Amino acid sequence: MHEYSIVQSLLDSCEENAVKNNATKVTKVVIKIGVMSGVEPELLRTAFDTFKEKTLCEEAEFVINIQQIVIKCNKCLNESVLKSIDYCCPKCKDTDIEILEGEDMYLMQLELE
Predict the structure, then answer these.
(1) Cα–Cα distance, 112 to 83 (Å, whole number)
(2) Which of 13, 53, 56, 74 has the fewest Cβ atoms within 10 Å of its own Cβ atom?
(3) 3-state helix, strand and coil shares in percent for the chain, rounded to the nearest 5
(4) What's the order of all strands across the beta sheet hosting 69-73?
């Protein structure tokens, strides 16, 4: 389960940002997870709830936003949000596509006190 190492890195980043901003605690953590990131949101939530104890994030609300797959077709230049992992342009059906979003995980927002 790589979610545990991801959460440890996330908590380290939160604490680093809190210290830089002279905060005594983190009250909210908002992340964005792409559906193709390989990260399981519920496992990540469980890991966060487990590992946040005795950190500056102990009382933090953890918000997960799911990022759908956004592609650009290199043939017709159409940008689309895919409903399923089809790997083709919904407009022209060509498979020469570029994935613009949906593969990564980002720390989007921290609320500090």
Answers:
(1) 35
(2) 53
(3) 25, 35, 40
(4) 79-82, 69-73, 97-101
Contact 7, 42 (CB under 8 A): no
Alpha helices by DSSP H, listed for the chain, are 3-20, 41-51
- C-alpha distances in Å from residue 15, one per residue of 27, 89, 107: 12, 41, 13
Question: What is the H or E stretch that residue 108 is in?
Answer: strand 105-112
Decide: residue 39, CB within 10 A, 0-12 exposed, 13-18 middle, 19+ buried. Answer: middle
CA distance 26 to 58: 8
Going from the C-alpha of 65 to that of each of 2, 11, 96, 102, the distances in angstroms are 19, 17, 28, 11
pLDDT, averaged in runs of 10, over the chain (113 residues)? 87 96 97 94 95 96 97 97 88 95 95 96
